[in-house]
From TrEMBL, chains A, B:
Organism: Neptuniibacter pectenicola
Localization (cell): Cytoplasm
Catalytic activity: L-glutamate 5-semialdehyde + phosphate + NADP(+) = L-glutamyl 5-phosphate + NADPH + H(+)
Protein's name according to its UniProt entry: Gamma-glutamyl phosphate reductase
Pfam families: Aldedh
Chief place of localization: cytoplasm
UniProt key word Amino-acid biosynthesis: yes
GO-annotated molecular function: glutamate-5-semialdehyde dehydrogenase activity
Length: 418, 418
């Protein structure tokens, strides 16, 4: 069997399993999730053994230390996987929820029922814990999943997959509800993203190269985010204390996350008051500053920001700073150079807060809050499969609802159309 | 300027206009819609003159009478266009609506704000009234539109476009918020569906060939429905009166619409009681019946249904009938042969009504109601841009909300992430 035939077989299996998990009781799905957690807990030796093979291979293949770190399944990470499964079991089941059911003039009653999307393909890189996160969210939302992890994690992912299948079996759910691709052939990805008859949505989780490739070639919908070029704009009517706190938190809380601020916009009237304190505190935290000319007039020792800086997601302790003369100029900069991910204004002005919320075209728009809050857990979704910077289907952090669709339900008493 | 350059120019114009209409007041959008209605009303001579050219050309080019009929702009159709515009002006503005705003444990307040998608491309065939319908719904939902009508309606569409631009001008909105493609070159469509930097969503309205081509080649999201293979299933616990009324209405109310029933499924226990009456009434209405073998045992004079009948959208006074021995068999038939559009069960049984609603995988699922109700107006959406049989983004009749997306808004008081 070649790769194409193999993927089609997985697709057929997934399609058949999807029909069964779509109508599975909440109780059975939760039972499966808890049984997966138990299976992972009791399979620690097997998980460590499989992971050790991947780590050995990784070292022999010259993976860098960051990759090896992401690949490692420590006991703490296994604990997190177990906790995540138990957490997803406690989330409300989105499937079958009926909203907005109302009577209409014809006498029929019309509402919307939340239903699974069907089969979700997940493509990800080294971290084996994604296998559990993605499988659990897809199962809870009534979808079947085909998971394609990185070749460097193949043994770890297969070991995790055995625990997942064990959990499905305990609950009497079809084991094909979650399938982990067993080949490391790269053609498997190409096949998976071009078989709309078997896969309804693709969620790529990984580097920009992977996401660009998947988006370009996919023949099915893709829930993705490419860049996180996030901004904080400090308005001339900002509270100075809030401005400094938020601007520091948005940059320094974590450097490698997509909701970290990459460019700070400061109103020119408030800049003289704030920039020297901010600069000291950023430099104390080890953040390299790069400023526009007017910023450098106030902070002569920092580096110069070029046009390229406004378009760069550093994912590193680097921050570009630009002075603007109005909120409108800030919004124009954000809408032009940002990645429509997350942007925040710091202001005490009511009218400007409303205008900023409305006019900034990003998946999360904030007032007086750190961009670091853009996250499924912080938003109360319980968990997230990813963050979407697209506008179609789901935007921002994607939780269980983002893995479902709504169909119309119509209730009548023999009603006919006149 | 070649076609590609021309379409890119329209795209750039649309993108610039989209930013302005996205933040336009409800009042201005409504003013534009009402002014468009007035402009159409006072431009009847120009509309008739332009339409006469298209009709002449159509006759000379051998268009069939159905096409010529769809192309004709009668005064009654102009009245309907005017009424439609005034109706859209009365609909609530979806843009900026904030839902589910709630406090979270961190202290931030998180909600979702409805925002326009951006630029919507509409590709349609002969009916010039689509120009007005599509433009008005896209404008009200804060989107810019590029409209590509059929070449046979080019003069009518341009005349309508002048009225639309007049209305935009009266309200001080950018005239490029609605652009009608002026070339009849087919390459314009190819270009429009492959420029994601300028167009966010494509809505094809027309025959299956058009929709298949657009879906296959598009590089942006497509809101579409392909087929309407709709079913009514008469359960053994159906009320006979309701069953006959709904089954007749679903087939005979209109033959050419996508929500018309094409296959009737009847439980074998109730078939002897109902089929002869139904058969008489269908035949009185001029409907040709095609039955499975067991149906023909009860109605020996009707034609035989082949496998192909179960997969056919007749759009004509033809109905296929199949006997089944259980609701599960009916659901399996619907999910296999249907087009996931609209399907209805007739039953008095509570448990079966719930199971049917949950298990049938269609954009509208009904109990004791005619499939003909699947329609944006009947569902209280006010209007519809089309019906989606996809699961991604919008499913079923697509109204103003389907032309928007939701972004997250976060309100804080200087909150930072711990």
């Amino acid at each position: 069997m070649n790769v194409q035939e193999y993927m089609i077989e997985l697709g057929e299996n997934a399609r058949a399993a999807a029909r069964l998990v779509a109508k599975a009781d909440t109780r059975l799905k939760n039972q499966a999730l808890l049984a997966m957690a138990d299976a992972i807990d009791s399979s620690r030796p097997e998980l460590h053994a499989a992971n050790a093979i991947d780590l050995d291979n990784g070292r022999n293949n010259g993976l860098d230390s960051a990759m090896l770190d992401r690949l490692e399944l420590t006991d703490a990470r296994i604990d997190t996987m177990i906790e995540g499964l138990r957490q997803v079991a406690t989330l409300p089941d989105p499937v079958g929820a009926i909203n907005d059911l109302k009577y209409l003039p014809s006498g029929i009653q019309v509402g919307k029922m939340r239903v699974p999307l069907g089969v979700i393909g997940i493509i990800y890189e080294s971290r084996p814990n994604v296998t559990v996160e993605a499988a659990s969210l897809c199962l809870k939302s009534g979808n079947a999943t085909i998971l394609r992890g990185g070749s460097e994690a193949i043994n770890s992912n297969q070991a995790v997959a055995r625990c997942i299948k064990q959990g499905l079996k305990v609950a009497g759910l079809p084991e094909n509800a979650v399938q982990v691709v067993e080949t490391t052939d790269r053609e498997a990805v190409g096949q998976m993203i071009t078989m709309p008859e078997y896969v309804d949505v693709i969620v790529p989780r990984g580097g920009k190269g992977l996401i660009e490739r998947v988006s370009r070639d996919a023949k099915v919908a893709v829930i993705k985010h490419l860049d996180g070029i996030c901004h904080v704009y400090i308005d001339d009517q900002a509270d100075a204390g809030k401005a400094v706190n938020v601007a520091l938190n948005a940059k320094t809380h974590r450097y490698g996350t997509c909701n970290t601020m990459e460019t700070l916009l400061v109103h020119s009237d408030i800049a003289p008051e704030l920039l020297s304190e901010l600069s000291e505190r950023y430099q104390a935290a080890g953040v390299e500053l790069r400023g526009c000319e007017r910023t450098r007039a106030l902070l002569p020792l920092i580096n110069k920001a070029t046009e390229a800086d406004w378009e760069t997601e550093y994912l590193a302790p680097i921050l570009s700073i630009k002075l603007v003369d109005s909120m409108d100029e800030a919004i124009a900069h954000i809408n032009r150079y940002g990645s429509h991910h997350t942007d925040s204004i710091i202001t005490e002005n009511y009218t400007k807060s409303r205008a900023f919320l409305r006019e900034v075209d990003s998946s999360s728009v904030m007032v007086n809050a750190s961009t670091r809050f853009a996250d499924g857990f912080e938003y109360g979704l319980g968990a997230e499969i990813g963050i979407s910077t697209d506008k179609i289907h789901a935007r921002g952090p994607v939780g269980l609802n983002g893995l479902t669709s709504e169909k119309y339900v119509v209730l009548g008493d023999g009603h006919i159309r006149q």
